[in-house]
């Protein structure tokens, strides 16, 4: 079996990159990742004042184009806002509360938190003069959710779903050769799912430049047919003409193999589409002796589509694809490249420990590799379109995918989302099935479900006839959706009679789209409801649900069922069934939220993988339980397993296929040892040893990450004096990092309410009761006017701009909850006048050297409670009558630096996700850890 190595993946990336650069140099197309250097602030759901005055204008951005106001206006002052890089999830940064959403893991953001449900993002970019004539667009992979995007104050559109990719053409609004402002307002006040969904721009954003005659977004569709030794590749491309060119174009389509060799191409001549029209062109290209995309050898090809106009390449567009065949058979299940493949699948949501839904690309690879290590070969994107990088990881690592749309229905909201999903994803060889719905309880058993399914199914086929369609169904498997869906998706054996359904619908293939929903806490072996602990022995979770073993035995023994998808591969935030607060993550995962395996992983590995496996549970640290019986289980695919306690045999047992072995063992400390036999020969040994107390912290890189990777996952554990991992340790570990940054920490404890991220707290405090009076003295140093209580009136009220005084004194108040030594307090002045002098509590403050409109406020001039800020300035003059004069003096920003990063171990483990410094040549990253009473152990160096 060939496992693709990280090195190979890296080589592949480097190859793709060099080809991309090469190709891009030749055409006008540029795709620039613009994840870095955004400004962010929370706004407010309905209090427009707290939403920075957005949409308060007499003419709104919907009334007059370019009238984006508040933060949507290009000139808005965002200096006090936080700087951050995407991907970003503001929900994961928040604390937990019992009042928050069960579905979203009790994070205090979104639904029910109007002050934490709106996120504003702003970014400035320069677009060169030389880009005139190109089509400039913004490309978003996904924003949660209901995003509005503005460009230089122009409203571009709203994208409701948090799972769709979308693109806006901004060409008409560009300021060439100067600054341009991108603004996104995300509104996470509604939930689309019943699971954690994050909040904000949690996927990538790109700036795209192309020739006006160009391949549209997701504009290629590559399919192939294999006949004898040759694959005939059909490459359909959709071109749009947003320019004035009339005449012929050449469409050159070239296929490259994984080594970068150009193996086949075609040239077509055609008329360019008319202005603002699109046209489809199809080329047939032959690939001899194709290397098929398969689970163990995920061979990929690359199609380069070039458009030539008068001999010059004006656009080039890349499509990765694979050549493979898929087939469902109602008798014999699923076939990949003509070979029967039992689907060993998992369902997964898209969040991870510490970072919520804002996963760097490396984490997608990390997670898919973990699933492959368990023996899984299939992934269901429950219950929404995934980020494109997840699909890239599945293509490159060899993982089959069910790609699922979010909501069933037949109107534009539903069908357009489905269309975009299929058009975006249909070139991924990993995808073998579209899912158009999941457990739609209201309709699944009846005629409405049947009608909707018929339409969504036919609609899918009209966009991609090469893949079948499924729906995950839960309430009875008899009528409604289940009588018409192409591939029956059984959600749980307990929800109906699967064999009876199959006997009635003999031509309908089927698979278990969900099975399991078992409960387990990693490293816990006694259920304790008071502590919200679920023992990790595989067990029936609820009367009508089945254990993983029962589920697999059912599916493995029925050839007509293509396989099953376990609910779930990884734990996720939200749905903390069977408990609830203060549990904040699910218990369903085969792995916890970090990807640390629970014992079920080894059950699956035994029967899903083709390699010898022997695993013993539980751990052997049961001080206080001496003499009491403990259940000892072995997961293995050996023929027989013999168990020893302190060298004494406790018996050899025969392993039943798809089973496990059990012993009752009276606890005594020492060594529990299992020996696995195959054909009578000892082939494996596994031990669980009683350990001493934790002594040393150990940091290690989880998985070899490619040296170019900027994000790494680090495992934190503690060892006893003999270097043994202490699986019961719960020490709190503090981290420090040099040369990089920490993105998040986790430990897989469903009840942990510890912080996921340690970020500086930024508080923007408004200046209130803003008053003014005319200043006659004209002397900056004369402070007496500040103290004089007479003649103050509301600032700017009824100001006669034609007859202004030569100078004004303004004063306002701001509140400080505390005046901590560590706080960093700054006043960001917004021009209300010229030659200003700023005083706080009577002290004259100097402007910063880096920004003349920023005033650093030292702790010595501040006090806890109400502070008074005074500004003396000569007024600004109105040039035109209709000029709107600024009356906002600015904002006070208080930064409270975060505590050091820390996390408790949970049953022996914690995880820390780190990111290297900005540029490739950045110095090495050094991560160190410390804890009370423990030796620091190693620092981890990453180059
Ligand atoms: C299913 C549902 C999943 C998840 C699971 C928990 O009914 O499709 O999304 O909620 O139950 O058991």
Care to describe what's here?
There is one protein chain. With 943 residues, the protein is mainly beta. The chain folds into 6 domains: 34-188, Jelly Rolls, CATH 2.60.120.260; 214-321, Immunoglobulin-like (Sandwich), CATH 2.60.40.10; 341-608, Alpha-Beta Barrel (TIM Barrel), CATH 3.20.20.80; 622-689, Immunoglobulins (Immunoglobulin-like, Sandwich), CATH 2.60.40; 696-759 and 899-942, Sandwich (Immunoglobulin-like), CATH 2.60.40; 768-890, Galactose-binding domain-like (Jelly Rolls), CATH 2.60.120.260. It is built from 10 helices and 53 strands. The strands form 12 sheets. It has an 8-stranded parallel beta barrel, surrounded by 4 helices. It starts with 5 loop residues before the first helix and ends with a strand. The site of beta-D-galactopyranose has 10 residues, from loops. Beta-D-galactopyranose is lined by residues 382-383, 438-439, 474, 491, 514, 517, 567, 575.
Summary?
This protein has 943 residues and is mainly β. It folds into 6 domains: 34-188, Sandwich (Jelly Rolls), CATH 2.60.120.260; 214-321, Immunoglobulin-like (Sandwich); 341-608, TIM Barrel (Alpha-Beta Barrel); 622-689, Immunoglobulin-like, CATH 2.60.40.10; 696-759 and 899-942, Immunoglobulins (Immunoglobulin-like, Sandwich), CATH 2.60.40; 768-890, Jelly Rolls (Sandwich).
């Amino acid at each position: 079996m060939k496992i693709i190595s990280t090195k190979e993946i890296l080589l592949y990336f480097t190859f793709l990159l060099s080809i991309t650069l090469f190709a891009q140099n030749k055409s006008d197309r540029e795709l620039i990742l613009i994840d870095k250097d955004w400004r962010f602030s929370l706004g407010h759901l309905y209090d427009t004042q707290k939403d920075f005055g957005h949409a308060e204008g007499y003419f709104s951005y919907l009334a007059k184009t370019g009238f984006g106001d508040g933060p949507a206006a290009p000139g808005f002052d965002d200096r006090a806002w936080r700087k951050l890089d995407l991907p970003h999830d503001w929900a994961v940064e928040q604390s937990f509360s019992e009042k928050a959403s069960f579905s979203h893991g009790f994070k205090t953001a979104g639904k029910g938190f109007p002050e934490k449900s709106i996120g504003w993002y702003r970014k400035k970019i320069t677009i060169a003069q030389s880009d005139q004539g190109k089509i400039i667009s913004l490309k978003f992979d996904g924003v949660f959710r209901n995003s509005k995007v503005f460009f230089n104050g122009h409203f571009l559109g709203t994208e409701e779903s948090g799972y769709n990719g979308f693109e806006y053409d901004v060409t008409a609004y560009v300021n060439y050769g100067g600054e341009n402002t991108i603004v996104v307002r995300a509104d996470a006040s509604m939930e689309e799912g019943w699971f954690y969904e994050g909040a904000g721009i949690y996927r990538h954003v790109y700036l795209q430049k192309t020739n006006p005659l160009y391949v549209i977004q997701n504009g290629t569709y590559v399919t192939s047919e294999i006949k004898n030794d040759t694959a005939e590749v059909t490459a359909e491309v959709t071109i749009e003409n947003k320019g004035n060119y009339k005449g012929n174009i050449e469409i050159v389509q070239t296929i490259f193999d994984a080594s970068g060799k150009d193996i086949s191409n075609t040239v077509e001549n055609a008329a360019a589409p008319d202005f603002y029209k699109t046209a489809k062109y199809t080329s047939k290209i032959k690939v001899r002796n194709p290397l098929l995309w398969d689970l163990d050898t995920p061979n990929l090809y690359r199609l380069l589509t070039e458009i030539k106009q008068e001999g010059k390449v004006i656009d080039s567009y890349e499509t990765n694809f694979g050549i493979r065949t898929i087939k469902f058979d109602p008798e014999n299940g699923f076939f990949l490249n003509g070979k029967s493949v039992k689907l060993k699948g998992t369902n997964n949501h898209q969040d991870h420990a510490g970072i919520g839904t804002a996963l760097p690309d490396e984490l997608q690879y990390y997670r898919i590799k973990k699933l492959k290590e368990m023996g899984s070969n299939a992934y269901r994107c429950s219950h929404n379109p995934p980020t494109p990088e997840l699909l890239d990881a599945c293509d490159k690592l060899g993982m089959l995918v069910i790609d699922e749309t979010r909501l069933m229905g037949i109107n534009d909201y539903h069908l357009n989302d489905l269309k975009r999903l299929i058009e975006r994803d249909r070139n991924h060889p990993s995808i073998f099935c579209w899912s158009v719905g999941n457990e739609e309880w209201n309709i699944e058993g009846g005629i409405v479900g049947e009608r909707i399914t018929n339409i969504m199914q036919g609609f899918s086929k009209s966009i991609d006839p090469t893949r079948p369609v499924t729906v995950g169904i839960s309430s009875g498997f008899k009528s409604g959706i289940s009588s018409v869906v192409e591939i029956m998706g059984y959600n749980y054996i307990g929800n109906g009679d699967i064999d009876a359904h199959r006997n009635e619908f003999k031509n309908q293939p089927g698979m278990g789209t969900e099975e399991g929903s078992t409960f387990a806490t990693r490293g816990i072996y006694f259920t304790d409801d008071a502590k919200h602990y679920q023992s990790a022995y595989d067990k029936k979770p609820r009367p009508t649900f089945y254990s993983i073993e029962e589920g697999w035995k059912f599916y493995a023994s029925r050839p007509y069922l293509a396989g099953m998808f376990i609910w779930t591969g990884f734990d996720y935030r939200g749905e903390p069934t069977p408990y609830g607060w203060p549990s904040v993550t699910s218990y369903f995962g085969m792995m916890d939220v970090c990807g640390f395996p629970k014992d079920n992983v080894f059950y699956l590995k035994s029967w899903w993988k083709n390699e010898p496996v022997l695993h013993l549970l539980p751990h052997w640290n049961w001080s206080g339980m001496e003499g009491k019986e403990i259940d000892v289980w072995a997961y293995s695919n050996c023929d027989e397993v013999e168990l020893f306690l302190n060298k004494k045999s406790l018996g050899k047992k025969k392993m039943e296929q798809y089973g496990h072995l059990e012993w009752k063992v009276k606890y005594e400390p020492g060594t529990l040892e299992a020996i696995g036999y195959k054909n009578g020969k000892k082939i494996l040994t596994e031990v669980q040893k009683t350990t001493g107390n934790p002594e040393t912290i150990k940091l290690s890189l989880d998985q070899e990450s490619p040296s170019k990777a900027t994000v790494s996952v680090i495992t934190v554990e503690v060892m006893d004096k003999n270097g043994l991992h202490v699986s019961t340790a719960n020490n709190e570990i503090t981290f420090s990092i040099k040369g990089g940054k920490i993105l998040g920490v986790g430990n897989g404890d469903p009840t942990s309410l510890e912080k996921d991220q340690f970020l500086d707290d930024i508080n923007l405090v408004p200046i209130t009761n803003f008053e003014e009076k005319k200043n006659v003295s004209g002397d900056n140093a004369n402070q007496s006017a500040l103290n004089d209580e007479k003649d103050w009136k509301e600032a700017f009220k009824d100001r006669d701009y034609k007859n202004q005084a030569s100078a004004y004194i303004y004063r306002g108040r701001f509140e400080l909850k505390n005046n901590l030594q560590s706080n960093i307090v700054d006043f960001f002045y917004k021009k209300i006048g010229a030659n200003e002098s700023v005083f706080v509590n009577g002290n004259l403050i100097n402007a910063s050297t880096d920004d003349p409109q920023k005033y650093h406020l030292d702790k010595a001039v501040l006090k806890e409670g109400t502070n008074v800020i005074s500004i003396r300035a000569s007024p600004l003059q109105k040039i035109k009558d209709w000029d709107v004069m600024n009356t906002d003096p600015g904002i006070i920003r208080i930064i409270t630096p975060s505590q050091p990063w820390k996390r408790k171990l949970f049953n022996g483990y914690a995880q820390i996700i780190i990111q290297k410094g900005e540029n490739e040549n950045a110095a090495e990253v050094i991560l160190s850890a410390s804890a009370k009473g423990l030796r620091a152990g190693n620092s981890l160096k990453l180059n």
